[in-house]
Amino acid sequence: MCGIAGLFDTRSDETPNRDLITAMTDALTHRGPDESGIHLEPGVALGHRRLSIIDIASGQQPLFNDDKSAAIVFNGEVYNFAELRPELEELGYRFHTNSDTEVILRAWEVWGCECVKRLRGMFAFAIWSQKHRRLFIARDRLGIKPLYYALLPNGHFVFGSELKALLPHPSLERKRDACAIEEYFAYGYIPEPRSIYAGVHKLPPGHTLVIEKGQKSLPRPSKYWDIPFADNGITSIADAEHELIERLRQAIDIRLVAEVPLGAFLSGGVDSSAVVALMAGMMDQPVKTCAIGFDVPEFDETAYAREVAERYQTDHQTDTVKADDYELVDKMGWLYDEPFADSSAMPTYRVCEAARKRVTVALSGDGGDENLAGYRRYRMHMAEEKLRGMFPAGLRRALFGPLGALYPKADWAPQFLRAKTTFQSLARDSVGAWFHSVSRMTDGQRRRLFSQSLSNELGGYNAVQVLREHAQHAPTDDPLSLVQYLDLKTFLVSILHKVDRASMAHSLEVRVPLLDHLLVEWMSGLKPEWKLVGGDGKHLFKRALKPLLPDDILYRPKQGFSIPLAKWFRGPLREKYRQLVLSEAMQDSGLFNVDYLRQLQAQHDSGRSDHSVVMWELLTFALSQQHLDAA
User: Fold this and answer.
1) d(Cα 298, Cα 92) in Å, to the nearest integer?
2) Residue 4 gets which letter from DSSP?
3) Domain that includes residue 97, residue range
4) Are residue 69 and residue 160 in the same domain, yes or no?
5) Are 183 and 304 part of one and the same domain?
6) pTM of whole model > 0.90?
7) What is the pLDDT of residues 36-82, one digit of tens each?
């Protein structure tokens, strides 16, 4: 696992400044503390920071082909490189290393841009072709590994694993993207392809991009893969259960190759427990497992993790995070560069920190909820879909629209009295309702939050457009499959963003077997009615896991990493909110209605309203801006 950076001068053959590419590469030292590599030639600079996992002795980068006419910098792991290598050797290619990096480069020499379709794994890489004066960049199918890029006014095309790798370039324009700000305050993250800066883009998952010498505008990325949601032909639920476990077992097996200590995260949830249970049957020694506990009982799941650890006799370690671990807040700006409001980033950071003390590679259970319909919101959405189907759209808008507007928000009330959101969703179409359910702030809240100048700059743009564009290209019209598809394209990528930054901050590689693309393709083709049965999400997966895990693991309510934000903003973070969110810098930004920022804190302090989600978005936004302005 590594960090990559580079510069391609599309206008001249002047050799880039060594100090510049060194600064870009060194910004990623945390991703690859073991080695650093720099290559300079006329018009091109490539940089690499290495975390040694496979072929420790000879896997240095940038790596070149035989005649030095092509070079690659690569971040990730390709798990089928050992299968591809004999095929390439039969075509006459000689190998000088035992690394997956060299296999990618050789595959590109044979298949060109189509080489990505042959790769099984997680990756972001760039290949420079000296012969064609052309740069090829690619990102894995699900977005496990990140890649930022920009074409600067001086003709420099720059790229890097994180936004911080681009910041040293003096020609990088720092203009905030108004649409990205709208999207951030809707979703709590900035979805691909935008970044916080108008001129910087994130390469979308499953896409490649080619840029050539002399190109004056940024080319559009090219999609090479999508989640098919095509019937996989399985007609028996028993057959589906058996094949699911066998496919997952195989996805885990190919991720156990490493020349460094390897283990797994174990939260006690269904997905991580399944991964550990199957790992235990494949390894000759006890699986090293890591769990994070909280010193507040309602947030703590370690008893469940311990139950699985004892059952499979893992080498288990639990670290406890204090409920007042708010000191980590100050790291969030540097860690994520862009504003990122998933508060579980902090316990994720801690579990990665704990894991790195024992292993260099950890397997995780991420991806199970999106692929197999595990989130509670899927159940809620399908219930609303049934109601939407009973009324014509016009009648729904006329009936439920006013009810949603008039019904009080009632944060303080019992759950069954909080009908405002349901009424608002029923008045919308399916995609609009899904956007309403996943949004952290309503349209009305964002209108009150934004200044008039920001609203004018947005020109009516609404973040729902992100989902509508994905829905237009969705390969399914099944209501459950559609929202799974939307989550796989947006929310899942944000989770992977969270895990990538938290793990790489500690030079820890995280592998995600439930996001093996062959497994994802197959799971997408399962019958939707097997995934969500009544109120039981991941129904098929849980049935398949019954021989491996007890019912109190399989059927307990989903919890996830949580921190007590509401309490923090009435206590230890109250002053930090005032200092950062109500600061002169935020006021001078001209982005927000300052009276509304103060109102949020006053209402939250009173205890009658819980604005902690919005206040956290604002605080992490302020931390990001503070970091970016200083960089």
Assistant:
1) 61
2) E
3) 2-223
4) yes
5) no
6) yes
7) 999 999 999 999 998 877 666 667 899 999 999 999 999 999 999 99
